[in-house]
Amino acid sequence: MSHYSIAVIPGDGIGQEITPPAVAVLERLAEVIGTFSAEYTMLPWGSDYYKQHGVMMPDDGLETLKRYDAIYFGAVGSREVPDHVSLRGLRLKICQGFDQYANVRPAYLLPGIPSPLRDKQAGDIDLVVVRENTEGEYTGAGGRPHRGHPAEVAVQTAVFTRSGTERVIRYAFELARSRPRHHLVSVTKSNAQEFSLGMWDEIFEEVGADFPDVTTERMLVDAMAARLVRSPESLDVLVASNLFGDILTDIGGAIIGSLGVAPSGNINPEHDYPSMFEPIHGSALDIVGQNIANPLGMLLCGAMMLDYLGQPEAAQRLTDAVQAVTGAGHTLTPDVGGNATTTAVCDAVKAALG
Ligand code: IPM
Ligand code: MG
Questions:
Q1: Is 106 helix (H, G, I), strand (E, B) or coil?
Q2: Which residue's CA is the nearest one to ligand 1's atom 12?
């Protein structure tokens, strides 16, 4: 039996509400399926930690996290800490520090979850966005010389490296090859950003030559935003830069009924470092303390994490349990039309595990 050490970072806001019951579901899954065991170490990092220590995580936090097999992450963002501080001090520090260059974001319409799009049934939306996760628009290169003076200038530079672009595109091609439809769309704005995304386009063509079995398209991000609304069923795998991937995956979460059901994996494909699994929603401060946050995205992150760790049967068992609960339709949180609590949904998934 495999044993895993999982670092758990509930983080901020609803992250602190969805993470503990989701861990309890994973513990139940281990008991039921018997193919793995895991220990979960809760790390109190996030905005509360910042208020005490002036940093989102300890300076040696990455050294601590290296000892774990994977990271289970709730959410980041609070009213007391500026967003760029909480982002860079925790999530980006881990994603960039651990070279988690493929942020894999599936958007799958679950049974029993209504899409805001007309006439969409379970599975009609089944796409995956691969978001570059270590550079691009999130590099943090720039500054504000003459700050506070009339001569002030703000420079925020997106940095695209050939190696960083090539590796995420190759990862997306491999993923498209592994899915039934073998289709990959590269999304850029290279007509306006001809240097960075012009290079991206060239690399997409170069790498594509190694994947003659994958059909490809290139689409500009504004057109892709419309296509996600008009015909999401036409999409299989998308690959995009850090910022465009961020924006498109909120549309992806919206069209499958709620960002609360959308998981993601910040993957270091080489397994040189632990990967991190987090729902794509944020800390949802507006619903904190009401026990109504949707835990399904967090639970599906658990399935992605188990798949990554080499436990596909357990991952499928959890995914099936989630779909059994959504398909039954009577234990859903308010964001998807129900009146159940976070803990009630987790208890229902736990029961559905058998
Ligand atoms: C996401 C979120 C984060 C991001 C925010 C919370 C910093 O939007 O993970 O999609 O911009 O990457
Ligand atoms: Mg986002």
A1: strand
A2: 246
Domains 1-108+259-354 and 126-255 share a fold: yes
- For this structure, is 272 an active site residue? no
Query: Domain 1-108+259-354 carries which CATH code?
Result: 3.40.718.10
Average pLDDT over the chain reads: 97
Q: Where are the domains of the chain?
A: 1-108+259-354, 126-255
**Helix (H) or strand (E) run with residue 186 in it:** strand 183-188
With a 6 Å cutoff on the Cβ, whether 106 touches ligand 1 is no
Ligand found nearest the CA of 77: 1
> What's the CA-to-centroid distance between 14 and ligand 1, angstroms?
15
180-223 pLDDT tens trace: 999 999 999 999 999 999 999 999 999 999 999 999 999 999 99
Render pLDDT for 5-46 as a digit per residue (tens, 0 to 9): 999 999 999 999 999 999 999 999 999 999 999 999 999 999
- So what CATH class is 126-255? alpha beta
Task: Tell me, using a 6 A CB cutoff, whether residue 282 lines ligand 1.
Answer: yes
Q: What pTM did the predictor assign?
A: 0.97
DSSP-derived pairing of the beta strands 155-159 and 136-143: antiparallel
Token pair for 104: 């894999």
Q: How many CA atoms lie within 13 A of 265 on its CB side?
A: 21
